Amino acid sequence: MTSTDDATRRTLVRRGLALEYATLSWNVIGTVVLAVAAITARSVALAGFGLDSLIEIGASIVVIWELSGTGEDRQRRALKLIGVGFALLAVYLLVQSTWVLSTDARPHHSPLGIGWTVVTALVMFALAAGKARTGSALDNPVLKTEGRVTLIDGLLAAAVLIGLLLNSFAGLWWADPAAGYVLVYYGLREVKEIFFGTH
């Protein structure tokens, strides 16, 4: 590796770490905001989204750990940990969506929840795109895979937002848990790829 290649790699690693620290910070703040919004609105969806933020915090910590070291063994362990995070996310979405549908749980209107999920969706989509580009440039499967966790976080924020809006303005309380089932499929597909694919 030339000194130019080495310098480029260091720059990309710093960018990857910056993206992960931004994700980590956003989700730490989001856990608190979502807890307040969920309690205020008695919203299962917002409470569940707060749990998803905890999973994303764990995934970011794994990537920060992986980017701070080297070696295929560390990458394999990091990928498996992210795979576990995907599995937990899929289980959470499956349980939450089924519980909300079966109990007819209807949240109150939540301006804080709506505002936070709008901004979170935009932030997560931007971070996911940055991780995908940086992970590809580094040829780092861990960063690319965690970028898909961040993408799911953005999709989940959008699903929760749609559910909150449809509940608030159209009385369609079941829209959010229904969207959750689509994300369960996506999460399980990623688990299969991580544990049984070509990584």
Folded structure, characterized:
- By secondary structure, the protein is mostly helical.
- The protein has a single domain (3-196), classed as Alpha-lytic protease prodomain-like.
- The protein is 88% helix and 0% strand.
- It has six helices and no strands.
- α3 runs parallel beside α5.
- The chain is elongated, with a radius of gyration of 18 Å.
What distinguishing features does this structure have?
about 200 residues, mainly alpha, 6 helices, Alpha-lytic protease prodomain-like
Mean pLDDT: 85
Low-confidence stretches: none
Architecture, according to CATH? Up-down Bundle
Anisotropy-based shape: elongated
Summarize it.
The protein has 199 residues and is mostly helical.
Describe the secondary-structure layout.
Layout: H1 3-41, H2 44-67, H3 72-103, H4 111-138, H5 141-170, H6 175-196
